[in-house]
Amino acid sequence: MAVSNLLLLALLCSMFAYCRGACAEPDSDTEAVAGKGFKLGCLSCKRRSEVTGTATVQWYFRGKGEADFYHIYTYNEEGPTIESDNFMDRVDWNGSKRSPDIQDASIYLLNVTFNDSGTYQCFFNRILFYDNYEYSTTVSKVVHLTVVAKATRGTASIVSEVMMYVTIIGLQVWLLIEMIYCYKKISTAGEEALREAANAEYLAIASEGKDNCAGVQVGE
Ligand SMILES: *[C@@H]1O[C@H](CO)[C@@H](O)[C@H](O)[C@H]1NC(C)=O
Ligand SMILES: *[C@@H]1O[C@H](CO)[C@@H](O)[C@H](O)[C@H]1NC(C)=O
Ligand SMILES: *[C@@H]1O[C@H](CO)[C@@H](O)[C@H](O)[C@H]1NC(C)=O
Known about the structure:
This protein has helices at 2-19, 155-219, and strands spanning 31-33, 38-40, 52-63, 70-76, 79-82, 91-93, 107-109, 118-129, 134-148. It is of the alpha+beta class. The chain folds into two domains: 22-152, Sandwich (Immunoglobulin-like), CATH 2.60.40.10; 153-202. The strands form two sheets. A six-stranded mixed sheet has the order 1-9-8-3-4-5, with no helix packed on it. The longest helix is centred in the last third of the chain and has 65 residues, at 155-219. The chain binds 2-acetamido-2-deoxy-beta-D-glucopyranose (3 copies). The site of one 2-acetamido-2-deoxy-beta-D-glucopyranose (NAG) has 4 residues, from loops. Residues 113, 115 line the site of one 2-acetamido-2-deoxy-beta-D-glucopyranose.
């Protein structure tokens, strides 16, 4: 009962999110593999999708063990600019295309090095155009990036695999117990039937004997 209610709730929530529009804000991945490319995700949905707006994007980076953030990337009406030599020729825009109304500010790091481990922060500077005024907001998101030599599996995936085995083994044990139980029940039922049949016969003989005796007694 509780489980089905939860499922229903989850279904309704996802339908609600779907009906509200396609924009969702999933968290970025946080583990990159050295030497490969990596997409640093950063999404900020406009709360009022009917209002037109423009946004510019800045990315900042603070290396692991460093004290300060520095500016690495800008994306505005003039296009992308890489602001730091450490990232020169290594960053591509993966965000909203052909629209000044940016909601996806993801960037793609090419050829990730261990020095890219650290904290990334993206800022949306957004201006919303209402009839009589403009409204500017700043939204920021943080991504903690770890660079590893080889891809490790996410904990969620390991946990779900273990759960799958536990479930399968559990079901099989349950099936086995059920089979043993049924087998025992059937065999006792069989024995009982035999015993009952024997009892019935004995009783029949006994009562016959009794009848005879009674007959004898009555006859006397
Ligand atoms: C992001 O950009 C990289 C490099 O330009 C490209 O290989 C990759 O397919 C892009 N990914 C997405 C999701 O747009
Ligand atoms: C990636 O970086 C390493 C070391 O920084 C370099 O040796 C290698 O050539 C680079 N690979 C590409 C495809 O740029
Ligand atoms: C990483 O940082 C160290 C120390 O700042 C530097 O010596 C090294 O050349 C850097 N490596 C790369 C691949 O940028």
